[in-house]
């Protein structure tokens, strides 16, 4: 493979252990980089803070789904049962909230669950068929015993040599430039 | 495994003389209510029943909580398990407080009136179950069983404090398994006896679960408030941590939803089927001023706690969790009042002072007994092998 013809995707660095990874992540954050991510075989306590991650907006997406379900269910039932096709069911009122509650509840939960699942996938930019990081052979260690930081070339501050130096200063055991496949 | 490090003092301070004042308040409250007996004895028994079922529900919720913690080998709850253990340890004393109700059966329960039964084929059909002798026998069985379970779970746990014998955990689990089974049956029948049989024509098969759901939701509120009381007196501040309050808040939230689910299930089926002898029970309770109580507890123990406790943040804020706990307990009392009182005052809502004095009286005794037992032993099961993980939880 000819490295000259490829576009740089970013720089990947490996660290020895979770603690060094957290330290590296916080120093990457302090240096002002935005487009970076960390990879480890297991969740690491304190990583969100080190990376300066904001609270996930997923909760608001779920709330949106839940409210859509609730209002949708109520609107449908009030419209159908109250106006469009009113039926006398054992003398109860046409618009009858106690009876609407189960369906409202079900639809609220259903759309909230859809919003959770699909919102989570969208926020993780999934499904994604290929990630240039997979071009790096070592990267498969991320699901075994490797602790990686990757700074993307799309970052405004990105300069290959500067990034490599930053990783070196933080004690990376292995640094590698990642290229796009094409 | 190294011994868990506890920095707090584990003995309830002897200078905190809360037991005496609680017993004092309780005695005064009960005496005042006792005076009420001579003024209006029907009212006396109904008020007493409301308060009695309120505090019994807390002890019953505690018993269930302790058994579940043992069966699931829960680590998180080890630091605070002594509190519910203590609440359920004195059923054998608390059981004595049902005796006034046995003398008031004629006032409380329509089915004890021989002439009414003679004229009513439905009550005749229920007579093999709903009769005075069997009622009293059942109460003895309930309290004997609960006393046995509560006292055993408490005393074996205390024994582990002293001997450090981890084998006792197996014993506690073996008690909890069958205990849970018999608990479920007796709790259901106790709720049928105490509250449901006030309207002997009406029945709801979910009623036992309904009373349980109310009790268990209320229990978490009580646990949270007891912990805040201890914290206010600088007790266990480093042992029971904010993360435990968060967990209790999560469970309180969960059982708020469970309660609402059960209470609404009972309502919806009766509402939907629209069978007169069933709906009349709700009709009495949703008119004459009682509908305001229903709205109060609908918001007080479901809507408001649900909305407040839904996000993650508020569940770890003591002030928020504490306020919600108070609201839930007030609603719990209001709901029990709403269940019981329409039988007496079926013409309309009318609050009698005896309801308040009997609540203060039985509350003083119930909490006095709690602190009396609580200070006899360590406030934390110190030799529980799960304690270390409970202390270090995040």
UniProtKB/TrEMBL annotation, chain A:
UniProt keyword list: Membrane, Transmembrane, Transmembrane helix
InterPro entries named among the record's database cross-references: ActD
Membrane among keywords: yes
Pfam families xrefs: ActD
Transmembrane annotation, as ranges: 58-79, 99-123
Name of protein: Quinol:cytochrome C oxidoreductase
PANTHER family (alphabetical): LIPOPROTEIN-RELATED, QUINOL:CYTOCHROME C OXIDOREDUCTASE MEMBRANE PROTEIN
Keyword Flavoprotein assigned: no
Organism: Fodinibius salipaludis
Signal sequence interval, chain numbering: none
From TrEMBL, chain B:
TM region positions: 21-39, 45-68, 89-109, 129-151, 179-197, 209-231, 252-272, 292-311, 320-339, 351-372
Source organism superkingdom: Bacteria
Key word Membrane present: yes
The keyword Transmembrane helix is annotated on this UniProt entry: yes
Keywords: Membrane, Transmembrane, Transmembrane helix
Matching PANTHER family: PTHR43044, QUINOL:CYTOCHROME C OXIDOREDUCTASE QUINONE-BINDING SUBUNIT 2
Protein name: Quinol:cytochrome C oxidoreductase
């Amino acid at each position: 493979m000819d490295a000259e013809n490829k576009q740089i995707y970013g720089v990947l660095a490996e660290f020895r252990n979770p603690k060094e990874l957290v330290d590296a992540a916080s120093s990457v954050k302090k240096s002002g980089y935005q487009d970076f991510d960390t990879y480890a075989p297991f969740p690491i306590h304190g990583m969100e803070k080190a990376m300066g991650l904001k609270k996930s907006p997923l909760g608001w997406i779920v709330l949106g789904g839940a409210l859509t379900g609730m209002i949708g269910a109520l609107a449908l039932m009030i419209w159908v049962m109250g106006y469009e096709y009113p039926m006398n069911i054992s003398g109860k009122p046409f618009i009858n909230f106690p009876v609407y509650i189960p369906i409202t509840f079900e639809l609220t939960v259903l759309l909230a669950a859809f919003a959770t699942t699909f919102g989570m996938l969208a926020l993780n930019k999934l499904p994604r068929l290929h990630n240039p990081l997979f071009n790096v052979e070592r990267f498969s260690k991320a699901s075994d015993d490797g602790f990686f930081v990757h700074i993307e070339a799309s970052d405004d501050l990105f300069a290959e040599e500067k990034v490599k130096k930053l990783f070196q200063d933080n004690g990376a055991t292995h640094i590698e430039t990642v290229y796009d496949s094409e | 495994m190294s011994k868990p490090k506890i920095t707090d003092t584990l003995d309830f301070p002897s200078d905190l003389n809360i037991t005496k004042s609680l017993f004092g308040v309780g005695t005064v409250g009960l005496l005042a209510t006792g005076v009420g007996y001579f003024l209006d004895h029907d009212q006396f028994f109904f008020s007493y029943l409301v308060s009695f079922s309120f505090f019994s529900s807390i002890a019953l919720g505690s018993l269930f909580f302790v058994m579940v913690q043992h069966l699931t080998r829960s680590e998180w709850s080890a630091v605070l398990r002594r509190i519910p253990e203590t609440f359920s340890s004195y059923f054998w004393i608390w059981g004595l407080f049902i005796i006034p109700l046995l003398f008031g059966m004629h006032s409380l329960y329509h089915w004890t009136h021989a002439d009414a039964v003679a004229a009513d084929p439905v009550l005749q059909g229920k007579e093999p179950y709903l009769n005075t002798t069997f009622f009293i026998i059942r109460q003895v069985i309930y309290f004997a069983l609960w006393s046995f379970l509560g006292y055993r779970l408490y005393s074996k746990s205390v024994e582990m404090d002293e001997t450090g014998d981890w084998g006792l955990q197996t014993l506690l689990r073996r008690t909890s398994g069958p205990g849970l089974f018999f608990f479920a049956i007796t709790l259901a029948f106790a709720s049928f006896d105490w509250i449901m049989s006030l309207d002997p024509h009406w029945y709801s098969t979910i009623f036992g679960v309904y009373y349980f759901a109310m009790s268990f939701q209320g229990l978490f509120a009580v646990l949270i408030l007891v912990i805040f009381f201890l914290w206010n007196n600088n007790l266990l501040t480093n042992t029971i941590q904010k993360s435990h309050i968060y967990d209790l808040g999560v469970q309180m939230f969960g059982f708020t939803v469970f309660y609402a689910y059960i209470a609404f299930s009972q309502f919806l089926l009766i509402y939907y089927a629209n069978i007169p002898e069933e709906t009349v029970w709700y009709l009495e309770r949703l008119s004459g001023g009682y509908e305001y109580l229903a709205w109060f507890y609908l918001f007080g123990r479901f809507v408001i706690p649900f909305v407040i406790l839904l996000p993650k943040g508020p569940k770890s804020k003591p002030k928020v969790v504490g306020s919600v706990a108070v609201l839930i307990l007030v609603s719990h009392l209001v709901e029990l009042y709403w269940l019981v009182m329409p039988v007496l005052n079926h013409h309309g809502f009318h609050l009698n002072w005896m309801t308040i004095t009997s609540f203060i009286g039985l509350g003083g005794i119930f909490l006095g007994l709690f602190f009396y037992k609580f200070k006899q032993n360590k406030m934390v099961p110190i030799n529980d092998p799960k304690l270390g993980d409970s202390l270090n939880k995040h």
